[in-house]
C-alpha cells in the first residue's frame, strides 16, 4: 500500500529522532567510560607514588 507524503515524512522524522537519541546515549556512555578510566589511572598513579614513598628500595628492585 502506498503511503502519503505526510506519513513518509513523519516516519522519517521519527527515525531520525530515534537515531539521534541513540547516538547521544552512546556518546554519554563513552564519556562516562573515559572518565572512569581516567579516575582509575589517577588512583593507580597515587598508589604507586605512595608505594615509592613508604618503601624507598622498591624503585631499585623494579628497575632490576
What tags apply to this protein structure?
about 60 residues; about 90% helix
The count of strands amounts to: 0
* Rounded radius of gyration (Å): 26 Å
How is the main sheet built?
none
State the secondary-structure class: mainly alpha
Helix and strand pattern = HH
- Portion of residues in helices? over 70%
Q: Detail the poorly predicted runs.
A: none
Give the overall shape, derived from the CA principal axes: rod-shaped
Mean pLDDT: 86
- Tell me the strand percentage band: under 5%
Explain what this protein looks like in three dimensions.
There is one protein chain. Helix content is 88%, strand content 0%. It has two helices and no strands.
Summarize the entry for a quick read.
This protein is an all-alpha fold and 64 residues long. It has helices spanning 5-54, 58-63.
Could you outline the blueprint of secondary structure elements for this entry?
Blueprint: H1 5-54, H2 58-63
Amino acid at each position: 500500500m502506498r503511503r502519503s507524503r505526510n506519513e513518509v515524512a513523519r516516519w522519517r522524522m521519527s527515525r531520525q529522532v530515534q537515531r539521534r537519541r541513540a547516538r547521544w546515549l552512546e556518546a554519554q556512555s563513552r564519556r562516562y567510560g573515559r572518565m572512569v578510566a581516567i579516575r582509575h589511572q589517577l588512583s593507580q598513579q597515587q598508589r604507586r607514588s605512595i608505594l615509592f614513598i613508604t618503601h624507598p628500595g622498591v624503585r631499585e628492585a623494579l628497575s632490576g
